[in-house]
Amino acid sequence: MKSDSLFDLRSHLRNRRLEQVVENRTAYTLDTAELNIYETHSQARAVELTFHSPVLTSMIRGKKVMHLEDTPDFDYHPGESVLVPGNRTMRIDFPEATFSTPTQCLALAIGQDQIAKYTDLLNENIPLVDSPSGWRWSDSSFYFTNSSTVNSLISRLIDIFTENNPAKDFFADLVMKELTMRLIQTQARRLLIENSQQHSSTNRLAFITQYIKDHLHETFNVRQLADKACMSEPSFYRQFKAQFGLSPLEFINQQRIQLAQRLLKTTNRSVGDISVACGFNNLNHFLKLFKRYTQSTPVQYRLN
Question: How many structural domains compose the chain?
């Protein structure tokens, strides 16, 4: 079978036994986690899957339609993941799976004790500002697009779980630690950005996030944002990057490019007008950043 999956499964495919055409499961178990690779070779609907532990599911190849209790139904593609709490049933459709083009997905079950240990490390070493609950693993399903770093960590874990190395428990623990911490950070980041207005009166970074969203057309710098947050510039920079995984300037540019994408989709305004509306005083700088973030020019983006 030709392999065009997101991750390298050659070691897995050499040794796994294909016994079912729908959600054929191969499990690789270590002391602190279990990696399951599922393959489906036939169209199917409403297939149920439940894990007792919290689980990271990540698409490798093909397409699923996911039905989760606390999330609207969505198409699930390679490069995307879902964090699902323990004892939460997933119902899955496989609209395109065939024997020659199977759907492949992994499910990484993570022990609750391990999650608690890694969360405590984050709270001890990188405490969140204005957040009494601190870093925590969400108790609701969380759907996101993988960053390149998350993809790299998942790929490394597949290698570790499927190789025959006496020290693989040790290697897996190191990678699991980083992956779990990054997932916790990703959740917190998304929740704060999406609910910035709701929390802006009690959380300084939520206030700054909302301020940035409301003033993207204006010119401001990191020092001004730090003053508005009633923090020193070094402390603001450090706290902001810990919370969002981006520097304040990177976050501002990201938000401005996202606004530009929305305006290109929904209006007929010229590229120059959109550049100014998004806070760019230099059109060439806007074009350069837009290409970096979207791999296309504004004109190509609008046409596509």
Answer: 2
